[in-house]
Backbone:
């Protein structure tokens, strides 16, 4: 799969978005793989399904994610799916450009962008020449690499979508902050996807 739009899923309630502190970030020197409250991933092996408050999931940038609180988790469980990985789901702030990459901490992720990163920000999927489409976890691919664009879509804005994080992906043309809600999965929950959803080679 590349990604799949899920327009039939309910939008997050206003109270969930409105209570997010869009300015606060922990100091980067607080991040350490051995800390109790903060996790930084410098190598794929650093990720051991930890619970965290804030996480810096990639060494190649300083973007940060913090975990949902109990009220957020309950809404997600009641309205989206109860089968997400709670210790690895939350609010992500993209304050810095990301290299084309594969994720380290999950196989699938469902996202809801409430800030897309600018009018031309585009979610893009890539294949590196000489390699299969599905790759190992934790890659960061330099933009000078020989990459073929597989699929792209502007935004998406105010719509849930799910993607396979083993496929190299990036967001291009970011000019502003990109922020979203993220639900992590090791496998796709039964019944989450329907024939009415908009598929882009998702299986």
Residues:
């Amino acid at each position: 799969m590349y990604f799949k739009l899920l327009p039939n899923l309910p939008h997050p309630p206003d109270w969930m978005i409105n209570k997010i502190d869009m300015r606060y970030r922990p100091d980067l020197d607080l991040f350490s793989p051995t800390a109790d409250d903060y996790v930084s991933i410098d190598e794929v092996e650093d990720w051991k399904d930890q619970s965290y408050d804030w996480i810096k999931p990639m060494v190649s940038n300083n973007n940060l994610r913090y975990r949902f609180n109990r009220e957020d988790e309950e809404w997600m469980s009641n309205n989206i799916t109860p089968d997400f990985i709670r210790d690895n789901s939350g609010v992500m702030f993209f304050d810095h450009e990301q290299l084309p990459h594969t994720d380290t901490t999950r196989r699938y992720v469902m996202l809801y962008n409430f800030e897309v990163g600018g009018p031309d920000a585009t979610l893009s999927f890539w294949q590196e020449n000489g390699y299969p489409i599905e790759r190992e976890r934790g890659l960061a691919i330099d933009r000078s690499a020989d990459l073929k664009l597989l699929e792209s879509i502007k935004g998406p804005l105010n719509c849930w979508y799910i993607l396979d994080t083993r496929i190299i992906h990036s967001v291009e043309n970011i000019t502003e902050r990109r922020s979203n809600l993220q639900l992590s999965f090791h496998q796709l929950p039964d019944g989450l996807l329907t024939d009415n959803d908009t598929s882009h080679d998702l299986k």
User: Anything to note?
Assistant: The radius of gyration is 16 Å. Residues 3-200 form one domain. The mean pLDDT is 91. Helices lie at 14-18, 70-79.
